[in-house]
Amino acid sequence: MFNVYAREVSDVEPIRVLPGAEGLAMGMAAKFTAGALAKASATEKPTHIVMGPAVPGPESGLLYPAIRVLPTTIFSAPASGAVAQAGGLVTLAEDGLGVTNTAESGVFTVLHTQNKAGTPVLGYFA
Question: Domain extents for the chain?
Fold first, then answer.
């Protein structure tokens, strides 16, 4: 799950309530496309992070609270594999709730790592 760790500016991203696909989870990396949130794929830079559970929308869809992804927001997220060093890019985990140790086509810049699978890394989406 992506959690806000720190912000490099004093402003806080507003929480927006946006329509989205069924099955999104709190802390998931999502992409706003075709007027709705959907889980971001491993090599897609997310546009939003889901910040809470879905609520029924005014019509038949679901609404999710989400924040926009900015390069000034530092996130903490679990790594599915050992991320060897800071400074590189890694891809998103298949479930959109963390990162992998795969560098090819990475979208998340690692600032800090413990170099152990299952431990959190710090970084941002550039």
Answer: 13-68, 73-125
Q: Which residues pair with 92 in a beta bridge?
A: 99
Contact present, 75 and 45 (Cβ < 8 Å): no
pTM of the model: 0.92
What is the C-alpha to C-alpha distance for residues 64 and 17, in angstroms, rounded to an integer?
Answer: 5
- One-letter identity of residue 106: G
Q: 90-122 pLDDT, tens per residue?
A: 999 999 999 999 999 999 999 999 999 989 999
State the average pLDDT over residues 61-72.
94
Q: Compute the distance between CA of residue 29 and CA of residue 91 in angstroms, rounded to an integer.
A: 11
Tokens 């060093």 — which residue? 85
Q: Please compute, for residue 111, the number of CA atoms within 13 A of its CA located in the half-sphere on the CB side.
A: 14
* Percent helix / strand / coil, the chain, rounded to 5: 0, 40, 60
CB-CB contact of 90 with 106 (8 Å): yes
Q: Judge whether 50 and 96 are in contact, CB under 8 Å.
A: no
